[in-house]
Design brief:
Layout: E1 6-8, E2 15-17, E3 30-31, H1 37-51, H2 53-76, H3 81-95, H4 97-107, H5 114-117, H6 120-123, H7 125-153, H8 161-169, H9 175-196, H10 199-205, H11 210-223, H12 225-244, H13 250-268
Parallel strand pairs: 1-3
Antiparallel strand pairs: 1-2
Length: 271
């Protein structure tokens, strides 16, 4: 039986009834955590990574190859770089499903190989497929908006990605384009992060539909805004390091984030 939607007040230890999303979805109890809790998730994620390095690094290699695809796309069409990175962050939680499975099995004391981790998609395949389709449509929508903004506000030609980025963001000649990109991108990032922060690991762990998983994610964000702001900043920073190291860092950093995301889900959502 699903739990009634509440969150637990640390001062009293009591569950406080929640409203809003809970009127439409049967959501689990959400815990409140401190702003520094994401660093604990990273520590737990590192522990999972070191317990199954081969399987984890195999997933990291997949992430690195996806990142390479992003860079190749940006090389031929620099204006697509922001939307390509956005799409990379969108598909990341789905590609990390195998990492959640590794962490889930570690909780039971089981050893996990790369093949075992791929069984994550069998656990709730229909809901995960729907979730993937929704994220894919979001990525396409952002790409189209990015293309429209570029066509309307950029008047020059960009021979390469570095020149294009410096021209748009550093020259001062395209302030309207830079502002539009950042505002639209920030708005979409907030929405997407809210609905996806813990949705994918919940789909791996429980037999729930995609809408319930996303609603639970929104509830967790609303209950823990400080912690999730820190978590979002850490994700962006580590992904940026991954790209800055020419994707070599992705092999380690993305598995670390994947495992840590599982522990974020476990920490925030009561079983």
């Amino acid at each position: 039986m699903a739990l009634t939607a509440n969150y637990r007040e640390p001062e009293t230890g009591l569950d406080r009834p929640a409203t809003g999303l809970d009127r439409h979805f049967d959501l689990p109890v959400i815990r409140q955590v401190g702003a520094g809790r994401p660093f604990h998730w990273l520590a737990r994620g590192w522990d999972d990574l070191t317990r199954a390095p081969t399987a984890s690094f195999a997933h990291g290699l997949v992430f690195a190859l996806l990142g390479l695809l992003v860079l190749q796309l940006a090389r031929s069409s620099p204006y697509l770089f922001p939307s390509a990175v956005f799409g990379f962050l969108l598909v990341g939680p789905l590609v990390a499903a195998g990492l959640y499975e590794i962490s889930r099995r570690h909780e039971t004391g089981a050893t996990v190989g790369f093949g075992d981790s791929l069984r994550a998609w069998r656990r709730n395949g229909g809901a995960m497929g729907l979730y993937a389709a929704m994220m894919g449509l979001t990525a396409i929508a952002w790409e189209r908006m990015s293309a429209i903004v570029f066509a309307l506000l950029y008047g020059g030609t960009a021979p390469g990605l570095p020149t294009f980025l410096s021209d748009v963001f550093l020259s001062g000649n395209y302030l309207a384009l830079a502002a539009a990109w950042m505002l639209i991108g920030a708005a979409m990032a907030v929405v997407v992060f809210s609905v996806s922060a813990i949705a994918a690991p919940m789909l791996v762990d429980r037999d729930v539909d995609a809408a319930t998983a996303m609603a639970t994610s929104v509830k967790a964000i609303g209950t823990n805004p400080a912690a999730k702001l820190v978590w979002a900043a850490l994700i962006v920073a580590l992904v940026a390091v991954g790209f800055a190291t020419m994707l070599v860092g992705m092999v380690v950093l993305l598995p670390l984030l994947g495992h840590a995301t599982w522990h974020a889900y476990r920490d925030l959502v009561e079983s």
